[in-house]
Each structure stands twice: as structure tokens, then as C-alpha cells.
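re the bet — no i am not wrong, look at it urself. input seq straight from the record:
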Amino acid sequence: AAYRVVDLLRIPPAPPRPDRFTVDRRTAARVEPQVYTGSGYDRGHLAPNFAIATRHGAAAQRETFLMSNIAPQRHRLNAGLWQDLEQRIATNYPARYGEVWVLTGPVLGPEPARLKGRVAVPAAFYQIIVDEQDGRLRTLAFIVPQEAAAHADLARYLTTIAEVEARTGLDFLAALEDA
């Protein structure tokens, strides 16, 4: 997922949180929320509810509850360190930099477990935060494993974009030279 978060003089209250997740009929997989029931995993947002709701409104917020925006996350990660990182991105970083772009997604292991034989369980998740000012890019990259302690030091999971690319097989910021 990729999303933009801008600074606001006052962050508006988020619209009420949707009460359910829904199948994204635009996808071939059409994963149903019930796949997660009893699995031991939360339905973890990629593009997060709060940042999207407060910057892009209720319609965009509802889209964060489509199952195409969801990945299996251990509760300790989803409600702990990952949530802390999402809050920093939604509040602290835009206040400091004006606007940031975020790229986020799963890091799959070589043979991931699957929920009900369908949904791959990531070994970790990445976040890449990008700020551009005066033609200069500043970036932060994290890879956070599912087993991360709820209140671990986030700096422990700092990494490079090259490492995220190596672990995911994706090429981020492809129009730029690797250096």
C-alpha cells in the first residue's frame, strides 16, 4: 500500500470506525473476513484507518476496511509497536516535515504458513517513509518482525530500502538511482 499524509493545523476527529471488514470484489482472491476467525491473527491494516480517515475522509476510511488492505498480524504487533509507528507517521512526521509518503506491506518468508490454505502469513512487515523537500529526499525504512515486542525500541528495526527490496523482491523508487 502507498499513501500520503499531510500536516494539518488541527487533526480532525476520525469518522466512526467501520464495524466490519468487507470483501474487495475488485480482486481475484476475494478474501473473506472469516478467514481470520480463530486463526490467532488480527486483521492488520496496511493503509491505516486513522491516517486515512483524518486526511482523506470517511469514504477513503471505509476502503481501509476492504480485505485487500488487510494482512495477518499478531495482536502484540498490531496493537503495539506497529500501531505506535502508524501514529508517529500520522501525527509526528507530518508535523515535522509537512508531508510524507508511506509505502508499506508484508515481508513473506520462503514458505509462509497460510490461513485456511489461502492467505499467506508474513514473517514481517515493512514501512518506508519518504519526505521530499527542496529536491532532496529523506527516507526511513523499517522491517518489523511479527514477534516484535509490543514496546520494543523502534530504532532496532531501522534498515535500508535496499534491504526491504532484497527481502520483498520489489523495486521501490525505481525512477531514482540506487545510491
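see?? Residues 81-97 form the longest helix (17 residues). told u. also The first strand starts at residue 2 and ends at 6. so pay up
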